[in-house]
Amino acid sequence: MDGLSRRNRKVAIACAGTFAFMVGAAYAAVPLYDLFCRVTGFGGTTQVAEQESEVVINRMITVRFDGNVSGKLSWDFKPAERSVTLKMGETAQLPYIAVNNGANRTVGTSTFNVTPVSAGAYFNKLDCFCFTEQPLEPGETVEMPVVFFVDPEMDKDPELKHVKEITLSYTFFPVEQPEQPVAARTVTSVTETNL
User: Fold this and answer.
1) Residues 148, 126 contacting (CB under 8 angstroms)
2) 17 and 71 share a domain?
3) What does the pLDDT read at residue 78?
4) What total number of domains does the chain contain?
5) Are residues 21 and 115 in the same domain?
6) Helices (H), ranges, the chain
7) What whole-number distance in Å separates Cα of residue 94 and Cα of residue 130?
8) pTM of whole model > 0.85?
9) Distance, C-alpha 121 to centroid of its chain
């Protein structure tokens, strides 16, 4: 009986350890997947660059722009231009325009992707409005620029050798609980302290 309870205890410890590992893996999965997508461009995830490309080659690439809005957000959202053709490695800037057609202040945030998805590894953004909260007052119009270049290394990728167009697509969604502005948090903290 003593040997049986020892085995049961080992099994229970092994099960608890496996459970703890699985919970830890679940929490780590999202940031690791995000890192994987950003490094590889998987799923059309673009790259974030800190400086312009030092190399510009003669191969031309056309970048098409697409703007979408969730049905729950009363905005118009579109690129200022539908496409631009540039040399690989050349930096370009294009604004997207958003208009709040609703009667109330709303806040939106956008997601993005690139097609073909394998081109995401070569699409580098220097500045972008994605994943940041954008508040708009009723009737307000804003321009949101995206600054980017297509890495000349794409020219060496046999899978993308004949690709002449890339599409950058953004979709805006409503933010149900916008982040409280820093100034408002500071005032609230001071007020609470004085109470």
Assistant:
1) yes
2) no
3) 97
4) 2
5) no
6) 2-40, 182-194
7) 14
8) no
9) 14
Structure tokens, 59: 């191969």
Q: pLDDT by residue (tens digit) across 40-78?
A: 444 444 556 577 889 999 999 999 999 999 999 999 999
Residue 73, classified by CB atoms within 10 Å of its CB into exposed (0-12), middle (13-18) or buried (19+), is buried
Do 64 and 18 fall into the same domain?
Answer: no
Rounding to the nearest 10 degrees, give the CA dihedral for residues 99, 102, 105, 108. -60
Q: What is the pLDDT of residue 9?
A: 76
Domain extent at residue 10: 1-40
Length of the chain (residues):
195
Statement: residue 143 has pLDDT above 60: yes
Distance between CA atoms of residues 191 and 195, nearest Å: 6
pLDDT at position 188 over 80: no
Handedness of CA 114, 115, 118, 122 (dihedral sign): negative
Q: In terms of Cα–Cα distance, which of 177, 165, 192, 168 is closest to 135?
A: 177
Res. 17: pLDDT tops 80: no
- The verdict on 20 and 50 lying in the same domain is no
Q: What are the DSSP E strand ranges found in the chain?
A: 47-48, 60-69, 75-79, 83-87, 92-100, 106-115, 123-127, 134-136, 141-150, 165-174
